[in-house]
Amino acid sequence: MGFLLVYYALFLPKSTVVIVDKLGSQPPVAVGNVPIGVAFFGHATSKVGDVMTRFFETAFQVIPATNAQLPANSRTRRTA
User: Fold this and answer.
1) Which of 18, 46, 12, 11 is nearest to 32 (CA)?
2) Of the four listed, 15, 41, 44, 67, which is most buried by Cβ atoms within 10 Å?
3) How far is 20 from 29, CA to CA, in rounded Å?
4) What pTM was estimated for this model as a whole?
């Protein structure tokens, strides 16, 4: 009985899902009649992946060298 209740709750209600290309090469696509359990799981995994990607891009970004730093670096290299 519990299995049927979970099945009815997750797979019988349908939803429309919009798939967005983050690279911007394709327009958003709407997909209809997606079970709400599958739509929720897809949304949750997509959101977690997006947040982790933004954290990694922030943590491992290359810090640009400024002109103020360059003379000090070259002076240190000459004296070493």
Assistant:
1) 18
2) 15
3) 7
4) 0.68
What is the domain extent for residue 52?
Answer: 2-62
Say how far apart CA 28 and CA 56 lie, in whole Å.
Answer: 25
Q: How many domains does the chain have?
A: 1
Angle separating helix axes 36-59 and 2-11, nearest 10 degrees: 70
Q: Is residue 56 part of a domain?
A: yes
CB under 8 A, 24+ apart: contacts of 26-30: none
The letter for the amino acid at 14 is: K
CA distance 61 to 75: 26
